[in-house]
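Run log, item B.
One chain of 336 residues. Sequence copied directly from the ordering sheet:
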Amino acid sequence: MSFSIGLGELISIYITQAMGIFSFFSREKKQELDKGLEKTRESVFSKISKVIVGKSKVDDEVLDELEEVLITSDVGVHTTLKIIERIEVRVARDKYLGASELNRILKEEIAALLQENQTTDIEGFDFPERDTPYVILVVGVNGVGKTTTIGKLAYNFKQAGKSVVLGAADTFRAAAVDQIKIWGERVDVPVISQGMGADPASVAYDTLNSAISNNKDVAIIDTAGRLHNKVNLMKELTKIKTVMQKLLPDAPHEILLILDGSTGQNAIEQARQFMAATEVNALALTKLDGTAKGGVVIGISDQFKIPVKYIGIGEKMTDLQVFNRAAFVESLFDKA
C-alpha cells in the first residue's frame, strides 16, 4: 500500500504537533475558546492592525504605538517592555522591517514568553497518578468565581473518570457553604461541611479523612476569601495545611488561586498578596468571556512564573478549560 501527501500538508501536520495546539483540543473546544476570547481579540488585539496601517516598516513609532496597545490591554508595563525588547532584537537580527509581519512576530514572541514561564501543559483535567487523594486547596477573594470554579472543576474531573469530594471550609460566610452544597448536588459529588462559623481546619481535616476512607481520587477544599488581614489569612491557611498533613504528609498538592480576569491589573495585585500569604502553585483566571482584559493572562504568567492551569470562558460547566498556551495565543491572533 502506498500513499502520498503534499508538502503543505506535511508542514501543517508538523507545526500542529510541534506547537501542541490541538493535542487535546477538539474542534468544539477551540471554537469555545475563540468565542470566549472574542472581546479581548476584537476590542484590544485588533488594535494592533491599526498600528501598522500605512506603515512600511517596524520603526520606533510603530513600537511606541504597540507598547501603548499592550499596556492598555492589561498585559502590564513590565511584561510589555519585555515583549517590545524581544521584537526589537528580532527586527535587528532578521533585518526584516516589514510592518505587515508585526502580527506574526508579536504572536511568536508572546507564545515563546508563555512557553518559558510555565511548566508543560497538562492534557485535560488530570493530575499525577497516586495511591492517595490528590488535594487541591482553593484560595481567592470573594466575588472572583471561586465557588463556581470549584463546582466546574468537580464536574470536569468527574467527566474525566475521577471520583471527587468537596470541602466547604469557607465558613466565614453562610452563603459560601450553601453555594458549594448546591454545586455538590448539581454535579452529584459529596460535600463535607460543618456550617457557618466552624473551624475551617476541622472541615478540611474531615474532608480529607472522608476522601481517604472512601478512596476518592481528588479532594477540593474551599477557603475563606479575605485579604483585609493578611496575617490572619496566613495563619488560617497554615493551620489548614498542618491538620491535613496529619492524615497525608504531602497535602495539599495544589494551592489553586482563583483570579477574576475582568479586573485586569487588580488581579495581578491580588495574586501578589495571596502569594505573600501562602505557597500558591497554580492559577485559574475566570470571566475572560466578559472582558477585553484577557491580556492579563500574559502578564500574570510572566510576572509570577506560576502555571495558569485553567481559564473560565463562559457560564456552562464545560466552559472551564484547561489552559493551553499555544491555543490561547492562536485564538488571540486568529482574526487580528
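Observations after the first pass:
- Confidence is low (pLDDT under 50) at residues 1-23.
- The CA atoms of residues 151 and 183 lie 5 Å apart.
Flagged for discussion on Thursday.
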